[in-house]
Design the sequence.
């Protein structure tokens, strides 16, 4: 017991990073609005003496936002993180972290110069020992106080503008449940008033980059607490599944024998307690989720509203989604048509790409199908199936990036819903990440998917796909151009042959060669092609 207590104290006294670095969760930092902790390696803020970074003013995007959020100055998440801090560490080169003490994703080594590539694998391709280790890591995260993060239990106003800090410790797993809640919670407007049409992680362009960062940070925290630097999140390929095949005691927990809404007592996930699931209660109290336990994980897969989600997504629906050439379109929210993001997120029909919020497709379909904790946005990360699901969603995003090879400019720079423009910082991460920084292939971020590591021939085919797609869209024009080009070529050939024949048949006494030669050379045929 003494050893446990000492270990616990060592854990909670360590400096941290994340939504609120522990070193910055104090009155002095909040009143100065500065979060530039020292790097342990040289004791200087942001490791400046070692040229790892320096304390700089935050550069906020000035690009206009969409009309979905008609307020200003009422939500701590606006212009993140300026309500709390306007100076943070800006790291150089491949350094990263709240104090520039870590390496960017995809790099390692003392000076962060060594490239690394980790592979995320299908959970059903893991050996028994690998699968058991993954489950043990999940349980360890649920029972280990975070070494890096603290959470806010009050708004900036409730903290008396920084003079009364309101933070608390949390375990590693629940930290990410809280982060997902905080990004998607409603805006508290005072009294009993809230604004629901706001979400910094969903229903807009940032949905895919935000969850990509979420998984990368979650992965890194597991690597830290286990010492397993090679750990990666497995994925569940749910295409064409007829049931929740991971919902067994061997994997993510089976069904309770007497209560279909609970998990089997044979799974240790049945003892897990959820947090941040009572959004209406928080709204009525004008309070934030404080990570108090709120009961067991709920899950009743397949017993959902069939009129909304009749089944799990199909391979054909995923392929149609991948064929969409526009990342974002129109209003850039859940009403967007022909948007790859909106179709993959599940607000547009996966067979037509037309928005239909009465139905739930692809990503949303699985959340609804699970029929429990996963089905409520703010608390959905409580169910560990969440990380398997989102790893596969991220792999579909990765396939789209490889197929269409978009430039960064494809990601909207302006007029997206609040928090979703290209240069906006993602809520609620510190160190700061911009949406556009993660709109790029996963291999540049140090990871890949097992099923995307294709043979050379398949890779060449994948490379050709965007060009074949473009050719398909303009095939009629190409055929027309070929026909007209053939006609023009025939006419030109006929005229040239006529000129030559006429030249050979001209009498030596009559020599109009100069004139006819000029006539032939002056004939100019140009096409608009």
Sequence:
């Amino acid at each position: 017991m003494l050893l446990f207590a000492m270990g616990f104290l060592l854990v909670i006294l360590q400096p941290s990073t994340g939504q609120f670095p522990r070193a910055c969760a104090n009155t002095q930092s909040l009143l100065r609005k500065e979060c530039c902790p020292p790097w342990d390696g040289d004791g200087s803020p942001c490791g400046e003496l070692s040229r790892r970074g320096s304390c700089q003013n935050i550069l906020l995007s000035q690009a206009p936002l969409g009309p979905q959020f008609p307020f200003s100055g009422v939500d701590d998440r606006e212009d993140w993180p300026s309500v709390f801090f306007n100076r943070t560490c800006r790291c150089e080169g491949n350094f990263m972290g709240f104090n520039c003490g870590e390496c960017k994703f995809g790099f390692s080594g003392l000076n962060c110069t060594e490239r690394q590539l980790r592979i995320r694998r299908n959970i059903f391709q893991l050996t028994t020992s690998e699968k058991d280790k993954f489950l043990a890591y999940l349980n360890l995260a649920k029972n280990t106080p975070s070494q890096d993060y603290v959470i806010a239990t009050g708004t900036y106003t409730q903290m008396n503008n920084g003079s009364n800090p309101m933070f608390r410790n949390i375990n590693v797993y629940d930290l990410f449940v809280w982060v997902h809640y905080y990004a998607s919670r409603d805006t508290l407007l005072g009294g009993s008033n809230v604004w629901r049409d706001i979400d910094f992680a969903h229903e807009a362009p940032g949905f895919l980059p935000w969850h990509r960062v979420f998984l990368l940070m979650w992965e890194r925290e597991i690597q830290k607490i286990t010492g397993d630097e090679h750990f990666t999140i497995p994925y569940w390929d749910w295409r064409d599944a007829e049931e929740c095949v991971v919902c067994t005691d061997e994997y993510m927990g089976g069904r309770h024998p007497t209560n279909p809404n609970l998990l089997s007592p044979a799974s240790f996930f049945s003892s897990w307690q959820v947090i941040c699931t009572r959004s209406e209660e928080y709204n009525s109290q004008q309070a934030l989720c404080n990570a108090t336990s709120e009961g067991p994980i709920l899950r009743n897969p397949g017993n959902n509203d069939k009129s909304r989600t009749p089944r799990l997504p199909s391979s054909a629906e995923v392929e149609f989604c991948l064929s969409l050439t526009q990342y974002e379109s129109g209003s850039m929210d859940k009403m967007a048509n022909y948007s790859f993001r909106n179709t993959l997120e599940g607000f547009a029909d996966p067979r037509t790409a037309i928005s239909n919020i009465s139905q739930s497709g692809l990503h949303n379909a699985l959340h609804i199908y699970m029929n429990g904790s996963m089905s409520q946005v703010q608390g959905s990360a409580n169910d560990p199936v969440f990380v398997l699901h989102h790893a596969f969603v991220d792999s579909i995003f990765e396939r789209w990036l490889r197929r269409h090879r978009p430039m960064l400019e494809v990601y909207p720079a302006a007029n997206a819903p609040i928090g979703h423009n290209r240069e906006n910082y993602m809520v609620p991460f510190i160190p700061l990440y911009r949406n556009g920084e993660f709109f790029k292939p996963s291999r540049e971020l140090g990871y890949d998917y097992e099923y995307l590591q294709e043979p050379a021939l398949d890779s060449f085919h994948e490379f050709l796909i965007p060009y074949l797609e473009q050719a398909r869209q303009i095939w009629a024009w190409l055929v027309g151009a070929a026909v007209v080009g053939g006609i023009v070529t025939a006419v030109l050939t006929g005229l040239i042959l006529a000129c030559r024949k006429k030249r050979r048949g001209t009498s030596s006494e009559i020599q109009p060669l100069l004139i006819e030669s000029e006539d032939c050379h002056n004939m100019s045929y140009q096409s608009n092609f």
Observations:
- The radius of gyration is 29 Å.
- Residues 27 and 164 are 7 Å apart (CA to CA).
- Confidence is low (pLDDT under 50) at residues 1-18, 505-529.
